[in-house]
Write a structure and sequence with these properties.
Layout: E1 24-26, E2 36-40, E3 43-48, E4 55-66, E5 69-72, H1 73-76, E6 77-85, E7 88-97, E8 102-110, E9 116-125, E10 134-141, E11 150-157, E12 160-167, E13 170-176, E14 180-187, H2 193-198, E15 209-213, E16 215-221, E17 228-236, H3 239-270, H4 286-296, H5 330-343, H6 346-359, E18 369-370, E19 376-378, H7 383-398, H8 404-407, H9 411-424, H10 441-460, H11 464-479, H12 481-485, E20 486-488, H13 491-496, E21 500-502, E22 508-509, E23 516-517, E24 519-521, E25 531-533, H14 544-547, H15 556-569, E26 570-573, E27 576-579, H16 606-618, H17 622-634, H18 670-685, H19 693-700, E28 709-711, E29 719-721, E30 725-730, E31 735-739, E32 747-750, E33 752-753, E34 759-764, E35 773-780, E36 785-786, E37 791-796
Parallel strand pairs: 28-30, 29-37
Antiparallel strand pairs: 1-2, 2-3, 3-4, 4-5, 4-10, 6-7, 7-8, 8-9, 9-17, 10-16, 11-12, 11-15, 12-13, 13-17, 14-16, 18-19, 20-21, 22-23, 24-25, 26-27, 30-34, 31-32, 31-35, 33-34, 35-36, 35-37
């Protein structure tokens, strides 16, 4: 019996997560799949259990030793990942040492019945014999999103030797079908088995327990002659529960688990639309990769879908970055639900809408991002995230997923969301990139389309006056898109030979006709404090005006903007064109390729290639859309996973950065896989799948009624064309006391309740002469006082 000693070096080095460059992600299909796993660099890394937003380990890999020999498969082997079957996220990993001495082949899947990940491992000696080598498993627990304050030890459970750990109310256990020759628990960076093995000390069995720190577990496997062992990683509330589950899966073996696992995924994939592209045998079916990625990132119990099973630049992130991308962003969630709907996974898309109803805030909006249970992580307000759920409802209704009898259950959600949009829009606190506030073409497009969809829904519920009001708001905002976001007369416009273009974000100083473009802070830059004129920032976001049906693809203003976008943001790589988010973007690796640390240089986004393909399809150029589809797919990892960003300059091999290949940001980006699926559906249908019909009918095929000009507190106007309806709009009851003859005669108007917590009072300017000045004051009945100042609006030609 080895005498136990406390391993030195506690609590270990500061914990870090691991690479976001995933090569595979998986889980069992259906509600029993309560463990989600990821693979990178040939090994199992972050595993999430029992919730999709709770990472529980950093990584789980192998070290191979022999006489005067030390090799870590993660760093010292070449890695190949193979999918067991199209559309089934179980994987075969083949790791061959770069010096040609050994090969480790692993089949990885999760148990379809319990919280266990299985690794069926076969070790081969390519030089010498198996007896010349020792194989050591090393596991880094990070129980519930944290590497600190974990405790690890080894012991037996019901006579079966185990490696165990606990932390933050959760536990894990590792079991092996082959015997353990030795086991240890140590502190990372000092007494963990990587350190002791690299020093030639072996796995130190006297290190039986490492208490309250950044710890690692290890075990030397007694390899049989065929080099085979099955390792199970189980999770539970108590160590005994985790050990029990690991032992059950070990006893039942990998064969039955894989059979059930495959059957579950086959059933799910069989019900999808056949959008598969032609592909050669033994090559990736990229459609089935994308569909399995979407489903792998789902929580079946709630309907939630997270942004990615990864932490961007994770190897530089510690316990202070709890969220990573394993959070729910409403925008990403709805975009992903659209991909599920495009693929025919109607029940899954409908479940997303149910989740949104349950997580809507009492005032009608959704938080910037949240844990699965709706608890806010970041608290910014992005108006598109309040509008998108209405569009999801509308898509589900159009696809006959929501029948007439079921529609009414969503009325309260739609009314509350549309009320929030009207009361707080159209400007947004943050754009879709979560950086700057103002008038975003993307956000405006989503808001306006959502208001028209909401109008249809509330009209069907019998609220005709509210529906009419929502359409008037949409029309008013649509009419002003150019005044808010179209820059003219800039140096860039002159350089391009165009009259103007849509800005990335419309931000202004002053009010009414005295407004002028404001300076916008460009985020994430090493030159902190960089400010640029809003009129000089350009983004592909403007193409949302076409995607959501507000402007035609051949509109001259769109054509001008495309010229600006392609001049400033397009990069042609061998695989095809890709685009940056906006000029001067700082969200990406730094100049030397080192990880983004709050500052950097924005890199190319494959997602934007998919969005551009949809624009080309809307413009009647399907061949170009197909070419862009190929470029989108070419950006994927060898396993078919689509990254958030790809590297855009010369290779930096020492940092694993290669031009046109995934960078160190999130991979997979679920939103990009959804865009891929929607593009396949759009190409099949010959039309943009998620383009709302309401905007197309109202703004592209017809001319809407002339909209009122709206004056609101905080969004005042100081002039109105003669003959236009002047509307005073408030977020609470109000009375407007006004005159058009210098207060010689006065009129009082009580604002009318619109039914969505806004109140309006209208004045027809038709009888007024050009030059008339409308003077008015506002009384607040609930407060019992006047606004405290008078206002003026001039009637102009």
């Amino acid at each position: 019996m080895t005498h136990a000693v406390t391993p030195p070096g506690g609590p270990g080095i500061s914990p870090r997560w691991t690479s976001s460059d995933k090569t595979a992600v998986g889980r069992a299909a259906g509600s029993a799949g309560r463990v989600w796993f990821t693979v990178s660099h040939g090994i199992l890394n972050e595993v999430y259990a029992p919730r999709l937003d709770q990472a529980s380990i950093r990584d789980f890999g192998f070290i191979v030793t022999a006489k005067d020999y030390f090799s870590e498969e993660k760093r010292d082997a070449d890695h190949v990942v193979e999918t067991i079957e199209d559309g089934v996220p179980a994987f075969r990993l083949i790791n061959t040492s770069k010096d040609g001495r050994y090969r480790i082949t692993k089949t990885i899947l999760s148990d379809p019945d319990r919280e266990v990940v299985l690794q069926d491992v076969r070790f081969e000696a390519l030089i010498g014999s198996i007896k010349d080598y020792q194989l050591h498993a090393i596991i880094s627990p990070h129980l519930i999103n944290g590497g600190a304050n974990n405790t690890g030890w080894y012991d037996d459970f019901k006579g079966s030797p185990m490696l165990l750990a606990t932390g933050t109310g959760r536990s894990l256990a590792v079991a092996s079908s082959a015997a353990w020759l030795s086991r240890s628990a140590g502190f990372v960076g000092t007494s963990d088995a990587w350190q002791t093995l690299s020093r030639g000390e072996g796995v130190r069995g006297e290190y039986q327990r490492a208490e309250d720190g950044n710890i690692a577990l290890a075990g030397t496997i007694d390899l049989p002659d065929n080099g085979h062992t099955l390792l199970t990683l189980g999770f539970g509330t108590q160590p005994e529960e985790a050990a029990f589950r690991a032992l059950l899966s070990l006893q039942q073996g990998v064969g039955n688990a894989l059979q059930v696992y495959r059957a579950g995924w086959r059933r799910w994939q069989k019900n999808l639309l056949p959008l598969d592209e032609p592909h050669e045998p033994n090559t990736l079916n990229r459609y089935r990769v994308s569909t399995s990625v979407l489903a792998t990132h789902r929580d079946d119990g709630s309907g939630a879908i997270i942004a990615s099973l990864s932490i961007p630049w994770g190897s530089t992130k510690g316990d202070d970055d709890l969220g990573g991308y394993h959070l729910v962003w409403t925008r990403d969630l709805v975009e992903t639900a659209g991909g599920l709907l495009a693929a025919g996974a109607t029940d899954d898309a409908l479940a997303v809408l149910g989740y949104l109803v349950a997580t809507q805030e009492s005032d009608g909006h959704w938080v910037q991002n949240s844990w699965l249970d709706g608890r806010a992580y970041w608290h910014g307000i992005q108006m598109d995230e309040t509008a998108f759920p209405i569009l999801l409802y509308d898509m589900l209704k159009r696809e006959n997923v929501i029948g007439l009898g079921d529609a009414r259950r969503y009325d309260a959600m739609i009314l509350a969301a549309s009320s929030y949009i009207v009361r707080n829009g159209p400007a947004t606190q943050q754009d879709r990139w979560e950086e700057d506030g103002g008038f975003s073409p993307f956000t405006l497009a989503v808001e306006i389309a959502a208001l028209l969809a909401a109008a249809d829904a509330v009209e069907a519920a019998g609220k005709t006056s509210t529906a009419a009001y929502l359409r008037q708001v949409a029309d008013s905002w649509n009419e002003q898109v150019e005044s808010w976001t179209y820059a003219t007369g800039t140096d860039l416009a002159k350089e391009l030979g165009v009259d103007g273009y849509y800005m990335r974000i419309g931000s202004f100083t002053g009010e009414g006709h005295s407004r002028s473009p404001a300076m916008v802070a460009v985020k994430n830059r090493s030159d902190t404090g960089l400010m640029l004129d809003a009129g000089l920032l350009v983004s592909p976001d403007a193409l949302a005006l076409v995607r959501f049906g507000l402007r035609a693809a051949d509109d001259p203003r769109i054509a001008n903007t495309v010229r600006a976008i392609d001049t400033l943001l397009r990069r042609d790589l061998p695989a095809g064109p890709y685009w940056y988010r906006y000029n001067e973007d700082g969200y990406g690796e730094r100049e030397d390729g080192s990880p983004f640390n709050g500052t950097g240089i924005g890199r190319l986004w494959p997602l934007l290639t998919g969005e551009r393909a949809h624009f080309e399809l809307a413009a009647g150029r399907p061949d170009e859309a197909r070419r862009l589809l190929a470029a989108l797919e070419a950006s994927a990892s060898p396993g078919g996973l689509l990254p958030e960003q790809i590297w855009d300059v010369a290779d930096v091999p020492e940092r694993e950065l290669y031009q046109g290949r995934p960078s160190g940001s999130a991979m997979p980006l679920v939103w990009a896989h959804s865009e891929h699926i929607k593009l396949l559906r759009s190409l099949r249908d010959g039309t943009v799948f998620d383009m709302p019909p309401q905007t197309v009918e109202r703004y592209l095929l017809n001319t809407p009624p002339v909209a009122p000009r709206v004056w609101r507190p905080g969004a005042a106007i100081d002039e109105i064309p003669v003959g236009r309806l002047l509307r005073f709009e408030f977020n609470e009851p109000a009375m407007v006391h006004w005159s058009n003859d210098g207060w010689k005669t006065t009129h009082d108007l009580d604002a009318i309740d619109t039914g969505i917590q806004t109140f309006i009072a209208d004045v027809d300017t038709t009888p007024f002469a050009v030059g008339t000045v409308i003077q008015f004051a506002v009384f607040w009945p609930l407060r019992g006082n006047w606004q405290g100042q008078d206002f003026e609006i001039e009637v102009i030609a």
